[in-house]
Design a protein that fits this description.
506 residues, globular, 1% strand, mainly alpha, two-stranded antiparallel ribbon
Length: 506
């Protein structure tokens, strides 16, 4: 059936089929939203968004048929279809689906602009998916903007209080600066190599001159990408934006855009600048150490759950970046696996936080979570499970994520980086356990505030089950995901690593 689709539509169009499906879904949502009477609840449009995301997920898997073709690129060599891109397409579509299910049951009935909310999520997913398959830097920039603009607006969706607009403005201003850095990097690399195609850049870095300009280009592009993954020292936007944005939005922006950005980071470093690995590897070591240490130390001082998880995400960015200390395919494989593991447990944690705290964050503090396990055993147990995975306890995805990341770094000779990472993991356990203890403590009398601000509906129940299942599978039977990640790494690496092994930059 998939091969028949290749004959029914142009091959180039099939290469961006998930993006096409998501775009059509977003347009349909906007058209239906505009045609409905004002009194009709728009929240059901989320089901249309979820259905479109499922079709995009299936379209991503259908793209495996393109791997049988000799030509891997389309649209004049600007978009690539590979196991690597399909891996991240499936991951991003899965995250978007879970986020939509969370929002379906947690958005207030009398809320505003629900149609735009679901449309923005699907349009943002278009940019994220395109970001993982683009192999031409101008297309990368366009995809980055599509993704960023949608998340900027979603961050300020809760307009009734000052925190929403504040989060959106901070995210937009700082994100615009980061995007500017990335765009300047593209201009520099074009000036040095005469190309914006990633594979051609890798070749011309060796044959051309201007080493100083190439290093400057790499540095500027790294600033832009590291901002998107909230790695230190480019993390200052993260806690304020996480606190001000609605929790379903935070579940999305803390996982899907970061997955796309890490895919871009892998493609830029290993695809365009493999010869500079002796230069960018120590820089990423430093970023990993800063992210782990700053994130964990700041999280220890937080009493607001969302701010604590925001600083935790900075630390996890450091754990993931540690995988880049590994050599070649193993580093990419470990980074891909950690991205999937972190996405599954973090989106699940924010699903539970949304249900407990409510859309307006009525219960924002750690002390407000006291006794949740007794009042709502399902939610309390689920949140404890996700926190245990974030710590890195065995039989969860978080354990194997850290294990593969640190093992890869150790294989690359980064012994001190691994030791610092292990110490930081122990440090992180302190604030996760503080929240776990609060959840498991018996409540003191009757709380004046309901322990669960949102009812547990069908959609959010499905979201929780998907997140729990993914976290368990990645912690008990990670073989299939590792295999797919390794295949993607192998397809991404061969030509560039041959140059690394045989050529010297300067």
């Amino acid at each position: 059936m998939t091969l028949d689709l290749l004959h029914l539509m142009p091959t180039d169009l099939f290469r961006i089929l998930p993006e096409v499906v998501l775009t059509i879904t977003g347009v349909l949502i906007m058209l239906v939203d505009a045609s409905l009477p004002p009194h009709v609840d728009r929240r059901n449009l989320g089901w249309l968004a979820a259905l479109g995301t499922v079709f995009a997920l299936l379209a991503s898997q259908a793209q495996l048929a393109l791997l049988q073709l000799a030509e891997r690129t389309g649209f004049y060599g600007t978009v690539e279809t590979s196991t690597f891109s399909i891996f991240f397409h499936v991951l991003i579509c899965g995250i978007v689906l879970v986020t939509l299910l969370i929002a379906l049951d947690t958005l207030p009935e009398n809320g505003h602009h629900k149609g735009e909310f679901f449309a923005l999520i699907t349009f943002g997913a278009v940019g994220m998916c395109l970001l993982t398959s683009a192999v031409e830097l101008l297309v990368v920039f366009i995809a980055l903007e599509i993704s960023s603009i949608a998340t900027y607006v979603l961050a300020g969706y809760r307009k009734e209080n000052g925190r929403g607009p504040e989060a959106a403005i901070k995210y937009f201003l700082l994100g615009s600066f980061a995007t500017g850095f990335f765009l300047y990097g593209i201009a520099m690399v074009f000036g040095a190599t005469g190309s914006t195609v990633i594979s051609e850049i890798a070749t011309r870095v060796h044959t051309g001159g201007h080493p100083g300009l190439i290093l400057l280009a790499l540095g500027l592009m790294l600033v832009g990408i590291l901002f998107k993954v909230s790695a230190a020292p480019f993390h200052i936007w993260t806690p304020d934006v996480y606190e001000g944005a609605p929790s379903p939005v935070v579940a999305l922006m803390s996982t899907a855009p970061k997955a796309a950005a890490f895919a871009l980071l892998i493609r830029i470093l290993y695809g365009a600048f493999p010869a500079l690995q002796p230069i960018w590897t120590p820089l990423l070591w430093l970023v990993a150490v800063l992210s782990m240490t700053v994130g964990n130390l700041a999280a220890l001082r937080q009493h607001n759950v969302k701010r604590m998880l925001a600083y935790s995400s900075i630390a996890h960015a450091g754990y993931l970046i540690a995988a880049f200390a590994g050599a070649g395919n193993t580093g990419i494989t470990a980074a891909c696996f950690y991205t999937a593991a972190y996405a599954s447990m973090n989106v699940g944690a924010f699903a539970v936080v949304t249900l407990i705290s409510g859309y307006e964050d009525e219960l924002p503090l750690i002390k407000d979570f006291r006794g949740v396990l007794y009042r709502t055993p399902v939610l309390g147990g689920a949140l404890i499970f996700f926190l245990i995975s974030l710590i890195g306890i065995p039989f969860t995805g978080g354990f194997f994520g850290k294990f593969f990341s640190f093992t890869t770094a150790m294989g690359g000779g980064a012994v001190w980086l691994v030791l610092i990472g292990l110490l930081n993991s122990g440090l992180a356990a302190a604030y996760y356990l503080r929240l776990i203890v609060s959840i498991a403590q018996k409540p003191e009398g009757e709380s004046p505030v309901p322990p669960v601000a949102q009812p547990i509906g069908v959609a959010v129940s499905a979201a929780l089950m998907l997140a729990i299942a993914a976290t368990l599978v990645l912690g008990i039977a990670p073989g299939e995901v590792l295999k797919n990640a390794a295949e993607g790494a192998y397809e991404l690496m061969p030509h560039s690593m041959q140059m690394v092994n045989s050529l010297v930059f300067f």
